[in-house]
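Ligand: cytidine-5'-triphosphate. Inputs:
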Amino acid sequence: MLSGKNILIGITGGIAAYKICELIRMYKRNNANVRVICTPNALNFVTKLTLQNLSQNNVGIEEYEINDFKPEHISYADEADIMIIAPASANTISKIANGICDNLLTSTVCAFKKPIIIAPAMNCNMWENPIVQENIKKLSTLGYKILEPESGFLACGYEGNGRLCQIDKIFDETSAILLPRNEVKKKYIITAGGTIEDIDPVRYISNYSSGKMGTAIADEAFYNGNDVVLITTKDIKRPYKIIKVKSAQEMQQAIENEFENANVIIMAAAVADYRVKTKSEQKIKKTNEDTITLELIKNPDILQELCKKRTHQTIVGFCAESENLIENAKEKIQKKGCDYLIANDISRKDIGFSSDYNEVTILHKNGGIKQLEKASKQEIAKAILKEINE
Ligand code: CTP
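Predicted complex:
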């Protein structure tokens, strides 16, 4: 299954390091080429000889054992299709989140441009430490796939959250990312963020959308093995195609360029309904009047127009409502003509805009309604994709 794939495993100093021996065997049984890098502390828990025998490759530890024409960390980074850091200690997580490169493993991560999975394992108090949590959040936002630790009896004697996730889960995530994409892939176009409508060279009209929900859906679609194009107003880096746009018109054009061979379109962006009719080329100066009038003109309704011209695509809209959520959403799904509408209650401060959490209701064009409980945007993204693919 993983034949021809190059998997790089980074092991850090934690008791769960012994479990990685089994993970290496799983990858090898599936014909992957496996290379291993250890931090010096990892070798307190597992031997170099064991890892070398299992991976059938040299194990890298020191940064300056240069026996290649390129520095060691660059060779490792270039060769691999994916990197798995497991177990990831609090120390290494925090170093990576802060761009520190003080050993072969962290230097390789810094030079690595392909998907990285991080599976943390540590004492529960360390895992709950706000600094570690902040660093995890930062890495997740930057596109690292975090496989959260599980709860249970820990090697340090504590009962709590911090145990390395199941090895099967790491294997499944790796396979999902590396799967031969032609067999399973669909092309997803996902939009995210609030559009920016210029008034003059220094001012604009926009909204509070953070782009997090759309980006979480794009991440999930990508990690499920699909081709993903994320059209967003935000500056982000991901291992899939990102098209940065500003205005509703630019967003519409970018979608049109990608539309024809797309299978699924998910409009999570908050598109401004109106733009300034004539953008001033010069900064608008203050006058003696107390009021000023801006003339606005309607933006195209991107979602509605896509629904009109679709051939085979599944089209999903979002709706932001501050009152009468379901009633307005039912009306909107009919008006727009999309297959699904994901309804958000924006009156709540604990979910939605800027929050990492959301609680949504999924409406289907045939009248079906499914309410999802409050969960992280990643979990909501998973549930939305599951629902539209069933
Ligand atoms: N949308 C769009 N083009 C627009 C406005 C909205 O494609 N000009 C899309 C959004 O991306 C979202 C859906 O339409 O998927 C619903 O957006 P929402 O703001 O809730 O609805 P509107 O049509 O703008 O209606 P209103 O603001 O009056 O609620």
